[in-house]
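step=encode ok
step=design start
structure_in=
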């Protein structure tokens, strides 16, 4: 079932910036869909249109079959959004944030208290409940923001660069949370500049370049389309980078020849499988050197 349908979507801001042009795609229920693109490509604009925060100027978008322009009220109770660079209020506690959000979502006092405790425990925030968010680390603040987005059991979660500034473990906690949600049937649309994040998470991804769709498909399809193959790196055993050769063999026979030759010469061989980052750079029209 498609929960998001985007057809020929366009957005021109009042002062004339054309942020999106003729974008079309679908997102299926339970998918993790990643939006990639350079700074200013139009990712946040697209996410905000789908979250009914911004009006499109061309084409159409439907969420759960409801038009974002005509029926935003049918969509809003069923989604949650974590905006880019969202920050908590420094002079409120983690507990305040989550409880207030429960009440904004319409829960009665008793239910809000019960739900606040549950969500805080789920996010390992309970031990920090009385601290002002000013006294929390960046990663814990981000966890408060994510917890706020999840109090209402959204069916679609929109995350705009959710792991920015998190340490490697913090990022993995967010990834695990995203996977737990999608396993329950929640759909997640997330933007990121971290290619490894998209590579690990995305069921499908879209690359936007200057407001237009440059790619739509799976990670493997992106790599195949960009035509980057396995790289073989040959260097002396005590490598200092000076005699490093980066080869792109075209066949398995060629790989074997390189390995044999390098062993004979006493040089070290390492393999570098194609990455999404390589594909991204090719697909948005840059070169690896840039
Ligand atoms: N409120 C606004 N008014 C006018 N122009 C805007 C507005 N918001 C964004 N833009 C412009 O629209 C284009 C797309 O911006 P957007 O924020 O969607 O990009 P992005 O892909 O999210 O970039 P980043 O990776 O830096 O977050 C940019 O040229 C930006 O300057
Ligand atoms: Mg953005």
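sequence_out=
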């Amino acid at each position: 079932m498609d929960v998001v349908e985007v057809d020929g979507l366009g957005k021109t801001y009042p002062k004339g910036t054309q942020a999106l042009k003729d974008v079309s795609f679908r997102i299926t229920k339970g998918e993790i869909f990643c939006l990639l693109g350079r700074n200013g490509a139009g990712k946040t604009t697209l996410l905000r249109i789908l979250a009914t925060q911004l009006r499109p100027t061309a084409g159409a978008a439907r969420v759960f079959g409801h038009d974002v322009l005509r029926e935003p009220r049918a969509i809003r109770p069923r989604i949650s959004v974590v905006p880019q660079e969202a920050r908590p209020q420094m002079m409120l506690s983690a507990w305040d944030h989550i409880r207030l959000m429960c009440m904004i979502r319409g829960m009665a006092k008793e239910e809000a208290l019960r739900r606040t405790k549950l969500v805080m425990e789920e996010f390992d925030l309970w031990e920090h409940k009385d601290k002002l968010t000013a006294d929390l680390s960046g990663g814990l603040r981000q966890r408060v923001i994510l917890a706020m987005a999840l109090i209402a059991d959204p069916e679609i979660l929109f995350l705009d660069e959710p792991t920015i500034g998190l340490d490697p473990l913090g990022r993995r906690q967010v990834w695990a949370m995203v996977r737990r949600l999608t396993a329950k049937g929640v759909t997640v649309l997330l933007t990121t500049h971290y290619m490894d994040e998209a590579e690990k998470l995305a069921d499908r991804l879209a690359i936007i370049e200057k407001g237009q769709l440059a790619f739509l498909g799976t990670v493997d399809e992106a790599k195949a389309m960009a035509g980057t193959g396995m790289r073989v790196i040959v260097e002396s055993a005590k490598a200092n980078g000076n005699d490093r050769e980066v080869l792109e063999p075209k066949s398995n026979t060629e790989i074997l020849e390189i390995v044999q030759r390098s062993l004979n010469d006493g040089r070290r061989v390492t393999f570098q499988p194609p990455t999404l980052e390589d594909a991204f750079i090719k697909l948005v029209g840059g070169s690896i050197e840039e």
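step=design ok
step=annotate ok -> DSSP finds ten helices and 13 strands in the chain.
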